[in-house]
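Ligand-bound model needed. cobalt (II) ion.
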Amino acid sequence: MQAASTLASQALGEVAKWVAPGVTTQRLDTIAREYICDNGGTPACLGYGGFPGTLCIEVNETVVHGFPSAYTLRDGDIIGTDIVAELNGYHSDMCYTFPVGNVDEKVMALLRTTKESLYKGIEAAVVGRRVGDVSNAVQTYCEKRGYSVVREFCGHGIGKKMHEDPEVSNYGRRGTGPVLRNGMCICIEPMINLGSKNIVMSQDGWQTRTRDRKPSAHFEHTICFENDETRILTTFDYIEAALEANGVDPMIVRGETEISTQV
Ligand code: MF3
Ligand code: CO
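Prediction:
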């Protein structure tokens, strides 16, 4: 699981080098696919239920499962890139939402809060506690700041398959749901909207956007529980190094580096 997660993390690090106005989302997808394949992995989303990309591409109001396309990124856009890498039969799943050029301060605040809420969820993910504790931590953090939580999609267990039990919702009550146990691997992936929580799905059955067409942000890590410790298997370190090199604010969350280097 760690090897697959490092591969996914490095692949998004490559993608991060190229996110800029004028780049097509198809180009980003190709970069991710080639990186995974060149390093012995399989792009698990490609062909999954007919999905047409290595990356799920989430521009602005797209919430999840957007297709790579000829769309050219524009100054002021945000773009989520969600990736699943398979290596030696194990899967890792992660997502990062990037600003493109100069992004409205309100939208930057949405990105920061969503990223922070992922780490709040991870902080609540402790052996012996329950999935609902994670869900509630994410929900409370985002709703207190005036954002809304997407209900229709959630995090999940992961391992030999991309999606396993349990479901890890981004809203819920503390003390409810399955107990977190050593040996489990889960993905926590808040999908947070600037406006209302309502979403609509396109006729293709995949691509999903906010109903009010306001922006949505999405960050995700794969984590596991081992020897009563929580380990974050994926890392944003490669992405953040690439962003810093390009002069883009890497939105470091307080405590993030310490948590990541526990691994
Ligand atoms: N992180 C996404 C999810 O858990 C990955 C989906 S891959 C796809 O739903 F192929 F289903 F698009
Ligand atoms: Co996922």
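The chain has a mean pLDDT of 96.
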